[in-house]
Specification:
The protein has 266 residues and is α/β, with parallel strands linked by helices. The protein has a single domain, classed as LigB-like (Protocatechuate 4,5-dioxygenase, Chain B), CATH 3.40.830.10. Helices cover 36% and strands 23% of the residues. The strands form two sheets. Strands 2, 3, 4, 7, 8, 9, 10, 11 and 12 form a nine-stranded mixed sheet that branches. Strands 1-5-6 form a three-stranded mixed sheet. The longest helix has 16 residues.
Length: 266
């Protein structure tokens, strides 16, 4: 079995399993528990920085995912390529992703069924050092337990190309879609808050055109999700919107983080 080893364990999050579980549990405990009447999500948007920075924001989304434990058996996970130039979307050749909390198996058959799409390639290269997908796995292991993963790194692709892939993998209640993205990068605190508020409005309105390259590092997969959410009649709900100046670090150069859920209307 081909297994991708963790690339950022010990830097973005603890490499020690006990310490990692404690950090994830603390983030979840500090996040607001969703009200019982809130619709269960079909898709979530989560940030992907080091846990000290974005973990509290990500936890607000994973509190929603926790309600799906026992129902969701597979997770479609899309995040931007930070370390490799990539045309389209890349699925890994690996059969599983390793984490300090155990191995997450990949749903190979479903990924292999995407190869007829010209925008999809199969390569371990874009996945090797990529953190945007990896940092989600410990949270998934804790809140959902044993699930199968469909990981895709997204590079230079059109909104329509990403939407097509998401719709192909959409599935039913057994499938959760996750898009991993941070928001504005390295602006002062006030500028970041203004930019991220604009992104929030675009996401809540399901308007892909409101998100540019400066809005989010994962703008491409996020825009694809917004198109799919509109097609399937979902409603976007903002769960949290902060930046590194709120969670850890100074306010001269901050990175924005947001969490959203997408669900059927109440």
């Amino acid at each position: 079995m081909r297994v991708r080893a963790p690339a950022v364990a010990g830097s973005f999050y603890p490499a020690d399993p006990a310490e990692l579980r404690a950090v994830v549990a603390r983030c979840l405990a500090e996040a607001a528990v969703p009200p019982p009447a809130e619709p269960a999500p079909k898709a979530l948007v989560v940030p992907h920085a080091g846990y000290v920075y974005s973990g509290p924001v990500a936890a607000t989304a994973y509190q929603r995912a926790a309600r799906l434990a026992g129902r969701v058996s597979r997770v479609v996970l899309l995040g931007p390529a930070h370390r490799a130039f990539l045309r389209g979307l890349a699925a890994p050749r690996a059969d599983a992703f390793a984490t300090p909390l155990g191995v997450v198996p990949i749903e190979r058959k479903a990924l292999d069924a995407l190869i007829d799409l010209p925008q999809v390639s199969v390569s371990d290269g874009p996945h090797a050092g990529e953190h945007s997908l990896e940092v989600q796995l410990p949270f998934l292991k804790v809140v959902l337990g044993e699930v199968r993963l469909l990981p895709l790194v997204v590079g230079d692709a059109s909104d329509e190309e990403v939407e097509e892939v998401i719709e192909r993998l959409w599935g039913g209640p057994e499938t959760l879609v996750l898009v991993s993205t941070d928001l504005s990068h390295y602006h002062d605190y006030a500028t970041a808050r203004r930019m991220d508020a604009e992104s929030r409005r675009a996401i809540e309105a399901l308007e892909p055109g409101g998100l540019g390259r400066e809005s989010a590092c994962g703008a491409v997969p996020l825009r694809g999700l917004l198109r799919a959410a509109r097609r399937f009649g979902l409603v976007a709900r903002t769960l949290d919107l902060r930046n590194s100046g709120d969670t850890a670090g100074g306010r001269d150069r901050v990175v924005g983080y947001g969490a959203w859920s997408f669900a059927a209307p109440a």
